[in-house]
């Protein structure tokens, strides 16, 4: 699988009622859905998913937040998916995100920033397989 990325609509955006609007922006930008589900991370899932940030001061907060409520997990397909999706979501901190980006429009703060996007092809595949079995990816 090349040209795929993995995303989560995070608990803040789900709670704020933005699932439909965010999926609309993703579809408009030309991404195709390969897999999708409404689910919730356990604390152990969130710790594992964000393990690279384990030494960062915000790790505890990040794990608590990401396991605090339902999320939408999805695998998306498009040419240049990883880079194009990160452009579509905007900077980590919504205050610094460009106009029209998903984080600018829907995020609450740097910690509760509406969406996740994979940062490499390698991680996209690892993250997709973390959330979905082979038979759930189309
Ligand atoms: P993801 O797509 O979620 O991986 O975000 P990112 O790649 O734009 O940022 P990064 O991987 O550096 O950080 C992962 C997540 O940690 C961010 O999306 C935020 O939810 C959270 N995070 C990053 N910096 C801070 C911070 O300074 N404070 C808090 N509370 N959370 C942060
Ligand atoms: Mg990241």
TrEMBL record:
GO molecular function: ATP binding; metal ion binding; nucleoside diphosphate kinase activity
Cofactor: Mg(2+)
UniProt keywords, alphabetically: ATP-binding, Cytoplasm, Kinase, Magnesium, Metal-binding, Nucleotide metabolism, Nucleotide-binding, Phosphoprotein, Transferase
Active site: 116 (pros-phosphohistidine intermediate)
The protein's Enzyme Commission number: 2.7.4.6
Catalytic reaction equation(s): a ribonucleoside 5'-diphosphate + ATP = a ribonucleoside 5'-triphosphate + ADP; a 2'-deoxyribonucleoside 5'-diphosphate + ATP = a 2'-deoxyribonucleoside 5'-triphosphate + ADP
GO CC entries: cytoplasm
Domain of life from the UniProt record: Bacteria
Single Gene Ontology BP annotation: GTP biosynthetic process
Pfam families in UniProt: NDK (PF00334)
Residue ranges constituting the Nucleoside diphosphate kinase-like domain according to the UniProt record: 2-138
SUPFAM superfamilies: Nucleoside diphosphate kinase, NDK
Location relative to the cell: Cytoplasm
Residues that coordinate or bind ATP: 10, 58, 86, 92, 103, 113
Broadest EC class assigned to this enzyme: transferase
Role, per record: Major role in the synthesis of nucleoside triphosphates other than ATP. The ATP gamma phosphate is transferred to the NDP beta phosphate via a ping-pong mechanism, using a phosphorylated active-site intermediate.
Subunit structure: Homotetramer.
Family that this chain belongs to: Belongs to the NDK family.
Name listed for the protein in its UniProt record: Nucleoside diphosphate kinase
Originating species: Chryseobacterium defluvii
């Amino acid at each position: 699988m090349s040209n795929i990325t993995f995303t989560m609509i995070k608990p803040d955006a789900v709670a704020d009622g933005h699932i439909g609007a965010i999926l609309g922006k993703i579809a408009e930008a030309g991404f195709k859905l390969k897999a999708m589900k409404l689910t919730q991370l356990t604390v152990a899932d969130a710790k594992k998913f964000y393990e690279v940030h384990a030494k960062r001061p915000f790790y505890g907060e990040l794990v608590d937040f990401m396991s605090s409520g339902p999320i939408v997990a999805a695998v998306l397909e498009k040419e240049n998916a990883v880079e194009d999706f990160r452009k579509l979501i905007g900077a980590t901190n919504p205050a610094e995100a460009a106009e029209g980006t998903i984080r600018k429009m829907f995020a609450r703060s740097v910690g509760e920033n509406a969406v996740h996007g994979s940062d490499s092809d390698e991680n996209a595949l690892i993250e997709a397989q973390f959330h979905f079995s082979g038979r759930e990816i189309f």
